[in-house]
């Protein structure tokens, strides 16, 4: 059955935009006597409404947009939205905690401040905390073929959804019905080589009287992109090459000459190994060690399955069930196998043969171990979600209801290559006791150090630790909405919600670490915890007068965790004023909160090391700029000690918004919105890089007593300047979560759409979205001055972003040109800005017949790779721009059976 309706220009334009106008098949009638359009549920409200536009701005990305604008998946679409201004660590960022996961950061407030929903329901967090600190939702396991649309609400929405919705809400809405079957095949790669990928999707659905079914199977394979695949970062230039083999007298600081060793091993690391002479002697080195062992894009293989069913039990009741399962293997390489004598203690030993304290070092090459991929780290992930319940009309009333249960589980296994505990004895022989200073004594054979390894020998001194991590969440919810009573201007609509939920997580490291099986520091403790959540809320829509509509919402959430209870009441209010049929003026005020991340609460004392570290203090003391500093970006980086805190308070947020929407016709609309978000008691783990920057600044200024400086100096522990080994180097960085004083950010969003319809030349649809952050300030401690984060050269967030697209639909052809402009960001040295950059994507879709389409998509048409040499290797803005260059795909879709 078809429902014919008419819309006023504002509602028509909004719904046309949300549906992704695709051509002449979509007709929006405009008549003098406007009928009531059908109600839709838009993210940010539980009350169905006739118009997409409301008191808060909502951005809608359709499934068609994902394909035409060059996005490979849902994450791609979200990360490229203009509201996603925050920097997040991606797969190219190095030895991070979560390279197998994808996160976004709306408004630059971090991945934990955006609530991600699937069909309005919560999903389990990724089991491992982002940066080892904050919990977040992974966006990697949702088949794009069944995505109907993605809605992004910017600003606080805790009064509707509870905790986490401080920066905004992302609601991924899947299709409920499907007629027939679709087979989709997609394959592509990069023009510079590497990172090829392919995808197969099989999607279908069928209706059987009262039963509607839908399913999707998605298989994806992606090859890695190695640093060696890009000539601009295939070798380190302008700095000392990486030590491959060295022997140093610790007392004198001089390297022992190795004779012909370097020449005998010249073929290692692709024939780039040779003797390097420094101020303190010579050693074997290569400029390609880092690039040889570095993937800037992970290798990935994933399989995702989704199924849903809706059964009309009666005219007023529908039973539903949805299930999602995905498994994923990701692998990367961020540093090869290296060895330093006695690395777990003082990194040197007493050489009985030479009567000297010595430090030996060795970097094992790909040629010795049988290929670089033999030292890959990989993750096996499994994500599942099950929802079922009933929805319909409450008997005897006009109220709608939905009662449902959702269970979500995420498991991951981390397989990490490690040196075994026998590696010291392999190179040094048996330990012969300790000297009077407690230093280990060896009588090593120098040939053992200089002789190349065989793959079998490599296997005898290396292995892999396996950690098991999981998270889960269960929620029962009951919602209802309907008309409460009628005012002169219209009916007052009401929605109520009640939720009960429980979630938990566990991080279980390999027990062999603490048993001394690996050449790794002990203290890898199990971290685990649970919490319960209870919530009740109410929302109302009030027609004040014919041109003014108000919304009010209030909600109380209570969390039980770690032997304590934390309850928060949040509320929001919105006004819509329509002085004319084509004009909407809107405003909102909302409070929000975020319960402390479970990782912050339950984190056991854990040690580890950063993938790389820059010692700004030693660079400054040596008078070396960061780009050329011997102590910059050294890998592996400094050790850290991290602990949690059960005394953290919930964050408190406040957001305001004011906007205007003008839609003179169904083919044109433009909106301007101002937004402001403030957070008090922000829970944050201290940034190691920021600590090192602050420490350098404090020490160089001689300030050791101000609140920030006193705290910083106590957290960055160093070896004494007169230590025999590693004098003045960083010994350990101590980090833990705190409730920071405050942070605030504000800005503007502009969106526009215009559709040109012609009889002979088809339709042309133009869209543009622009977001600009106007101000961002933070204060870590109450006594500190307010920091201007927007003009801070350590802040790599985007200051503004622009997306614009033009789509031309003509007969069997549909072509889209998509432009993305990124603002300036600080360079790697943190002393200037990189210029803005514009990237262009293009796609063409041709309908072969009524059942088949063929499309070609090209991302980064002009093959741009942003260069930045100021921070040293790898000579591009890591995490901000991709080094892949031009990427192209060919896609074939065939529909049958419907």
Automatic annotation (TrEMBL):
What is the originating organism of this protein? Duganella lactea
Where the record annotates domain TonB-dependent receptor plug, the positions are: 53-169
TonB-dependent receptor-like beta-barrel domain spans which residues?
Answer: 464-861
PANTHER family with a match to the protein in the record: PTHR47234, TONB-DEPENDENT RECEPTOR (PTHR47234:SF1)
Pfam families registered for this protein in UniProt: Plug (PF07715), TonB_dep_Rec_b-barrel (PF00593)
Q: Does the keyword Lyase apply?
A: no
Q: How does it sit in the membrane?
A: Multi-pass membrane protein
Which compartment or compartments is the protein found in? Cell outer membrane
Organism classification: Bacteria, Pseudomonadati, Pseudomonadota, Betaproteobacteria, Burkholderiales
Tell me which family the UniProt entry assigns to this protein: Belongs to the TonB-dependent receptor family.
Q: According to the UniProt entry, where is the signal peptide?
A: 1-29
State what protein this is by name.
TonB-dependent receptor
Q: Does the record's keyword annotation contain Phosphoprotein? A: no
- Alphabetical UniProt keywords: Cell outer membrane, Membrane, Receptor, Signal, TonB box, Transmembrane, Transmembrane beta strand, Transport
